[in-house]
Request: fold
Amino acid sequence: MKLDRPRIAPIAAADWTAEQREIMAPTLRTEGVGAQAANVLATLIHHPKLMKRWLVFANHCLFKSSLPARDRELVILRTAWLAQSEYEWGQHVVIGRRAGIDGAAIEALKQDLANYDWATQERAALAATDELSASVFITDDTWRLLAAHYSREQIIDLILLVGQYRGLAGALNSLGVQLDPGLKGF
Reply:
């Protein structure tokens, strides 16, 4: 379900408190005129204490994960699709393309995964993503596939990556966070 307007509107940068400005400073984009925050961040900053702590985990998942960037973005995009998080999808199509995912693979993430020729390790990561999204558990068969291609650290990163983006999708969808200008949804 997609809301056509926010339930909690993003806070404009001009209206941030000193605490909010301090938390948001490292996240600002400076394209165009003035500093801007992505709608997700400008919405979550309503809760500064949570935002400050969440950013540490979110930054690990996005920037410090032990997973290869392409695999990470495939997992995030599949999670976004399964959770029907148009905001997450729009953001990560852009990031995924930078990580080397082409349009055909991006479109394939919206369908039965068997219909695309994924690399073996990608197929394992995506199977784990589907299982975690459906039953919050990775089966033994999928675990064996993961273990053949990923280290223990990478498997833990993958599991928590799905959890992070599944949880974020619930927040984005429920809060009605709207796509940022220039991004496309499904």
